[in-house]
């Protein structure tokens, strides 16, 4: 899991049932981390991504907020900022310890039709997700993945980690893609193995069901315990997008806002 990377915590908050199917996931780095981002596709929903460009001032972020709710869900990051500011965590802007501005980039996915209109994450979701953050967290229909779907299957939150050349690399993603998730060894859509869905591998993007074109985007975070510059961290995010293109086909369409953040926690 991504929390195998030292210094990284993850928390969820979601509402499912009674007209709700949405939520928020927060990746917390209380000690700060060098941050970067790579965004693909024609329909992104993001916040505080320009500051992650290598030429810009701020070098370290305090958290990344992933949320459902489309553009409305960006409000969840306000709650993350409040939680961090109450703990004096952020970019110093004054002489006193509490005079900080928490740096919280965010990305959202489109799950609005899965809830009654008006039911979407707000600042309280981000705050509650921070309260729930720990090294152990749930996967599946939780957090930002509560209302997610991928192609013809239910989407959700997933996480994994590997040790590569002595460094721990972990990732967490909320998968809500327009394309189908596929078996990397065969290229076959996972949904094709479930007769109830009647899915075959789409040979062209145009063959995807049109009803899916408004419910998409995969958003996630990759973390590594290496000391990297912002430019180097961005190459991690770029490589992660390559992995996404292998696992979800097609990816990065005009209807996707695929966004991957990278965090480097090493000193």
How would you describe the overall organization of this protein?
The structure is a single chain. With 267 residues, the chain is α+β, with helices and mostly antiparallel strands. It has one domain: L-amino peptidase D-ALA esterase/amidase (4-Layer Sandwich). It contains 3 helices and 15 strands. Strands 1, 2, 3, 4, 7, 10, 11, 13 and 15 form a 9-stranded mixed beta sheet that branches. The longest helix is centred in the C-terminal third of the chain and has 18 residues, at 230-247. 51% of the residues are buried.
The secondary-structure class comes to alpha+beta
Count the E strands: 15
β-sheet strand percentage: 25-35%
Helical fraction equals 10-25%
Judging from the principal axes of the Cα atoms, what is the shape? globular
Oligomer: single chain
Span of the ends, CA to CA: 21 Å
At the fold tier of CATH, the topology name is: L-amino peptidase D-ALA esterase/amidase
CATH superfamily: L-amino peptidase D-ALA esterase/amidase
CATH class, anyone?
Alpha Beta
Kindly provide the radius of gyration, computed on alpha-carbon positions and rounded to a whole number of angstroms.
18 Å
